[in-house]
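Quick one from the shared queue. A colleague (R.T.) flagged DUF2892 domain-containing protein as missing a structural entry in our internal table.

Convert sequence to structure tokens.
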Amino acid sequence: MKANVGGFDKIARIGAGVVLVGLAATGTVGVWGWIGLVPLATGLMGWCPAYNLLGMNTCPMKK
């Protein structure tokens, strides 16, 4: 698995994931909030399978 999720993208994914999981854990948004585990995991791993399928990459290029 080659990293395909860059800096700002990682921060946004982790932030959104933490917020959604936190809201789901407190019962504010219901069960659907657990979907926040997906962006949280992809942000922490630095790899997104959907980016592979779409041919996207937000990582900075190595010199």
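The helical segments are 7-26, 37-45, 49-54.
The radius of gyration is 13 Å.
Added to the table.
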